[in-house]
Structures are given as C-alpha cells and as structure tokens.
Design goal:
By secondary structure, this protein is mainly alpha-helical. The chain has nine helices and no strands. It has a domain at 84-220.
Length: 224
C-alpha cells in the first residue's frame, strides 16, 4: 500500500514538471558579466548627476547679474606724469608774479605783476569750471540747471575779478577757488575720479595760497 502511494506521488510530480516549465516567464535572462558589480553600473548615473549639477551651476553663474562698479572705480590709480607735471606747472606764473610784486623796484612793475597774478588766476578758475561744463555736455554728470550754473559760475567770477582789479580781485579769486573746490568734493565726489579730486585739491590749495600771498604782497607794496 505504501509502495502504491509513493508511486502515485512520483507520477504526479513527474506529470506536473512540464507544466511548471511551461508556466515559467518567457523572457530572456541575461546575467551580469563576471567581474561587474552593481557599483560599476551606478557610475554612469553618478556622472550624469555631476554633469547636471555642473550645468545648473553654470546657468546660475551665467544668469546672475554682474555687480556694477562705482562710477569712479574705473579710473586709473594716478594721473600720467606729463599731466601731473603740466597741472602743477600751471601755478608757476603765480609764483613769478608774487616774486615780481615783492622784488621789483618800481610801482609800475609791481602793479604789472599784480595784474598778471589776477589775469592768470582768472584763467585757472575759468578753466576749472570749463572741465565741469564739458562733463555736463558729455552727460558724465547730471545736466540739471543747478549743475550747469555751477559749471558756468567760475568763468563769471573770473571775469568779475578782472574787471574789479587790485587786492579785491585777488580776494575774489581766492574765495572763488575755495568755494569751487568745496563744490567739487561735496557735490560731485562720487561722480569724479578720486585721482582727479586729489589732484584738484592740491592745485586749489596751492593756487589759493599764492593768491593770498599776492594780496599780502600787494598791500605791502602799496598797491590798491
């Protein structure tokens, strides 16, 4: 009896085996090549992720707006040697006139030296205003009525000094240079190059000093 049961079980299993084989999924099976693990198959995905991150970073850098520099940051660190030398030589005629007022023997010679100081001081003051007039016309500074009036004021003060003459003219030029220097630094300090502002400060200080000394020398020489 036991032999019969075992025989039936073996026949059943043998008959079911083809059915099991036929019920197996009908798709090819490709095993991993030898020596290749899952870590190697993940590397292309990592490289694609790195490329994506690099592309996003590149787009972020490209899309970010550049920071605009200050208007006076693009200026050179200093003026050229020739420009500086010519600028400082511009006050040399005032030194010559001051020496003439103090050293020339006659009244006529001293008066001529005084008129020379007034004339040259007027030229320097008018030229300082002309720089701002040109900047306004070129659009480098705001072209408002106040700016244009401030640019024209030095020429008007210089013309008035020439008409007045004497020590009053020297005093008017001294005040004009001082006020215009304050205007440059207080009102246009952020629009003009720092090297130019420093150069103008030195020239204005030297010019005001020489004009004040000319006024003192005129008074000592008995000039009006």
């Amino acid at each position: 009896m036991q032999w019969l049961v075992i025989r039936l079980i073996s026949i059943t299993v043998a008959g079911a085996a083809p059915g099991l084989d036929e019920s197996a999924p009908d798709f090819p099976y490709y095993p991993f090549p030898s020596g290749m693990g899952t870590s190697r198959r993940a590397k292309p995905a990592c490289s694609r992720g790195a490329s994506s991150r690099q592309f996003i970073a590149t787009r972020r850098v490209a899309s970010s707006s550049a920071v605009k520099p200050l208007e006076n940051d693009t200026a050179p660190a200093r003026l050229g040697t020739a420009a500086e030398l010519l600028g400082y030589l511009a006050v040399a005629p005032l030194i010559v006139c001051l020496a003439g007022e103090a050293l020339l023997p006659g009244y006529g010679g001293r008066e001529l030296a005084q008129r020379g100081a007034i004339a040259w001081g007027a030229v320097l003051l008018a030229s300082a205003g002309a720089v701002h007039w040109g900047l306004a016309l070129a659009g480098r500074v705001p072209r408002t009525a106040a700016r244009m009036a401030a640019a024209a004021a030095p020429a008007l003060v210089a013309a008035a000094a020439v008409l007045v003459g004497g020590q009053r003219a020297l005093a008017l030029l001294t005040v004009g240079f001082g006020l215009f220097w304050l205007y440059e630094h207080r009102s246009l300090g952020s629009m003009l190059p720092g090297v130019y502002l420093g150069w103008r400060r030195n020239l204005s200080l030297a010019t005001c000093t020489l004009l004040a000394l000319s006024m003192i020398a005129s008074d000592a020489a008995g000039l009006l």
